[in-house]
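Wed. Picked up where I left off yesterday with Major facilitator superfamily (MFS) profile domain-containing protein. The coffee machine is broken again, so keeping this brief.
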Amino acid sequence: MAEEKLPAGASDASTSSDAAVSDVDNAALNRRVTRKCDIRLVPILGGLYFTAFLDRVNIANAKLNGFEADLHMPDNGYNTAIWIFFLSFVLLEVPCNIFLNWHRMQPNYWLGLMMFLLGIVSMCQGLTQSAGGLYACRFIMGALEGSLGPGAALLMGQYYRRHEFGPRFACFFVCALASTAVSSFLAYAIGHMEGVHGIRSWRWIFILEGIASILYAALSFFIIPPFPKDAKFLTEEERRCLLERLERERGGEKVSMRDIRWTKILFNWKVWLATFIYFCGDLSSSSNVSFSPTILTQLNWKASQAQIHQIPIYCVAIVTSIIAHILSARAGVRFPFILIGCSVSLIGWSIQIAQLTHNPSVRYFGLFMISAGASLTMPLSVVWLNNNLEGRPEKAVAAALQMGFGNSANFVSSNMFIKREAPYYWTAFTVGTTFAVLGIVATLVCAALLARENRALDEKEKRGEATDGTEDGFSKGTKFRNTL
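Structure written out below (tokens, as returned):
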């Protein structure tokens, strides 16, 4: 029997049709995987950050309710309570993230345990009877919270591609801003519990918010997802899709802590420039969080009014941060938005330092600018560094270094508001202005160096040279290019 001939081009058409169907199937699968990751990662980790940050910043509102007098604290006692938290926080962030990256340690056990203990110690602040007891609680809290920020960034970075990571980390970060706004509202509400059961209202702030953290941390043991290879909320097909798409983007990646070239990480300019940019943003953010209630009361607002007036500041910062991250992800660039953030903070600090009038409304507007600028600079600098590194161990160490040393800005911000300079705080406002300018300079330098490295990689590829081994100690696939 003669073999039936297909019309010319029929075979090609059939192949094209099959490929089109396959592409549609893959696109649907990718969307399903991303949607599942969004549901399981962002709200759960964001909730942890919300409660942890609530425990960190509620001291600013408790201060307005009189704990300094009750605990017989010296003039610089509040400043000490702020910076002592970050002493242990900075020292332990890198060890904590290395420990989390250890292949036997699952994130739900590690992060859940740290946050559970954090809630207990935070609650103990409301039971302390001396300044020394408060300092001890704050020091332990810093050690426990040091694992969360870089740990969450590491975990999220294992599920999302570079263009996906930014908006998700922004949602995680804005939970801290939301926590600050809610902290002000709760302090206003709990302030009406003064004397209930013979307990001062500032003690109730610590006790009730600490209990909330304990309850959520206990739940997190069961709901924080593991690393992707063990993710049971994905089917086998979905897990394979996730791992394959990440591998395609990252190329050959080192996965063992033993393979890391430590000196190359510690002396890599990307890490330290991104860390300094984060430092500049955090100096603005921590100044606002810790001292804006005090500044507002010294502008002749009552304590309750100061607490309520903080809420719009952080609501604006939340909206600003989300919009900037969405635009940054769509544009595929980071540095212009970081530059805008530093510039906006600079305007806010300049308003404070100019002080042509003692008008509370003008200085209040300046606080909006400082906070909004920091809400762009900090999370985007974390995303920027994460985008420009490869390999889970490298990202684990780099994220911890960035957040650890970046958060050392709190040592500066907690000591630059000198009580005798109130309400003008010349020293604080001058330092804030200076670091906003330095943040702009560092961002421009970093962008220029990244662009230069991209050009060098392009030239190597044109000459047919391999670009997967790199002199800076980070593994790079042949198609890897820095995100500007």
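Quick read: The domain at 261-463 is CATH 1.20.1250.20 (Growth Hormone; Chain: A;).
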